[in-house]
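R.M. (postdoc): so does anyone remember the format we settled on? I'll just put the structure tokens first.
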């Protein structure tokens, strides 16, 4: 895991995210949740762990988010299709009008592909993901079967 991912986990820890750290590093400069979420959307496809941390935080803290700022920051430094996935997943667990407005501002990924990069590197994982891909991800032009609890099976 790169330094920027480690820094993101430190920032999520500072924001009260449910992240376990091997050690708490020197205090990283505080940024707004909107900026941390935006940057995280650019990295979630590399890390299932980061995806879960962001999703959990969104579910618990949506009231704190300024959705216009989040969308603007994500346009600058993130991925709107990933923000759409996360917002829809969070909305399924905890419906909130902010999630709906965020989803409305997001567009699906340009082409259908695995959500997690590691899945694309394994023929077996790719085949299984295609066979059991969740509709939530398909709507955003991704293939993923790893968030089954979001379909109400929790």
């Amino acid at each position: 895991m790169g330094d920027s991912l480690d820094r993101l986990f430190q920032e999520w820890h500072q924001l009260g995210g449910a992240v376990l750290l091997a050690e708490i590093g020197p205090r990283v400069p505080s940024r707004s949740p909107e900026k941390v979420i935006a940057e995280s959307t650019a990295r979630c496809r590399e890390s299932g762990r980061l995806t879960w941390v962001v999703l959990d935080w969104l579910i618990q803290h949506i009231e704190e988010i300024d959705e216009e700022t989040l969308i603007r920051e994500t346009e600058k430094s993130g991925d709107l299709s990933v923000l759409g996935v996360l917002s829809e997943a969070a909305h399924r667990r905890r419906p909130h009008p902010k999630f709906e407005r965020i989803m409305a501002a997001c567009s699906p990924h340009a082409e259908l592909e695995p959500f997690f990069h590691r899945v694309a590197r394994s023929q077996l994982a790719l085949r299984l993901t295609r066979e059991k891909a969740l509709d939530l991800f398909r709507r955003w032009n991704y293939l993923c079967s790893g968030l089954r609890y979001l379909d109400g099976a929790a």
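R.M.: ...and that's the designed sequence above, right after the tokens. Also worth knowing: The beta strands are 113-114, 142-143. The CA atoms of residues 38 and 74 lie 4 Å apart.
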